[in-house]
Amino acid sequence: MAWLFLLMAGLCEIAWAIGLKFTEGFARLLPTIGTVVGMAASIGFLGLALKSLPVGTAYAVWTGIGAVGTTALGIYLFNEPLTLLRLACIGFILVGIIGLKITS
């Protein structure tokens, strides 16, 4: 169950990071509320996952999910550059996440 909580925390991490872009510097009320809710949910799920997962593993996986998902959505939603080097770096993060899951 802890890994499911960690996945949910990572997905909420992606949601608030992308939501932050839509707040336009916290000038838009509804995106700001959604972003804050995403932040709280992300931390809440991370806290539940930490009941049984090592903090180093959980934190690294949480931030990794957030980084990969936010980068992918940035490319898709905001036309951020998609280069071979960026894809390789995302691949390294994914390998790290999988490695931490396998060894935990």
TrEMBL record:
**Where are its TM segments located?**
27-50, 57-78, 84-103
* Pfam (any one): Multi_Drug_Res
Give the GO molecular function terms: transmembrane transporter activity
Subcellular locations according to the entry: Cell membrane
- GO cellular component term of the entry, any: plasma membrane
First-listed, main subcellular location of the protein, grouped into a coarse class: membrane
User: GO:BP terms for this protein?
Assistant: xenobiotic detoxification by transmembrane export across the plasma membrane
Q: Which keywords does the record carry?
A: Cell membrane, Membrane, Transmembrane, Transmembrane helix, Transport
Entry-linked InterPro entries: EmrE-like (IPR037185), Small_drug/metabolite_transptr (IPR000390), Small_multidrug_res (IPR045324)
- Transmembrane as a keyword of this entry, yes or no, is yes
Coiled coil start-end = none
Bilayer disposition of the protein? Multi-pass membrane protein
Q: What's this protein's family per the entry?
A: Belongs to the drug/metabolite transporter (DMT) superfamily. Small multidrug resistance (SMR) (TC 2.A.7.1) family. Gdx/SugE subfamily.
Record protein name field: Guanidinium exporter
